[in-house]
Structures are given as C-alpha cells and as structure tokens.
Amino acid sequence: MSAGRKWRRSTAKSTRRTVVVVPDIPDGAPSSVKNGLAIRNRATATGRCPACGARMEVSAPVVPGQVTDARMLHESWCPALVDTPDPNGGHP
Description:
Layout: H1 3-13, H2 31-46, E1 56-58, E2 70-72
Antiparallel strand pairs: 1-2
C-alpha cells in the first residue's frame, strides 16, 4: 500500500464532527465584499482557499470539545482579503 493511500485511510477513520463559524454575507454589501467573504467562508470551512491556495495553519493540537485557533495567510492579491463591513456600523 502506498504512503498516500495509508494516510487517506487513517484520516477518514479519525474524522470528527467540527463546528466552523463564518460571518454572514450582508445583502447590501458591494459585490467585491460579497465575493471576498464567500471565498473566505469557503476557505475556513474547507481549510484551503479556493482563490490563492492558502492552507489553514493550526497553532496547537486540536482537542475535542475545545476551541482551536487557526489562521490562513492568503496571497496579497487574494480576493478573500477585502475590507469587511464594520459589524457595529462604525461605532465602537
């Protein structure tokens, strides 16, 4: 059995349910913001950006039942890096 095939089998057995929190895409947002948020949300849910190929980096071991911090370093040209609307409407 190839190393790649063995890896695929082991990851399938260890798959756990995961909750991923992503922002809503505002109806009134400009199309560039809607597109950027859609790309960012998909990248967060899948672990890989569909636009630039960036991958999710997890800084600590994943522990079931606990929150895990992760980051994704997109390329400078990636549409996922759009400025997003302020959820507070510009107020602190």
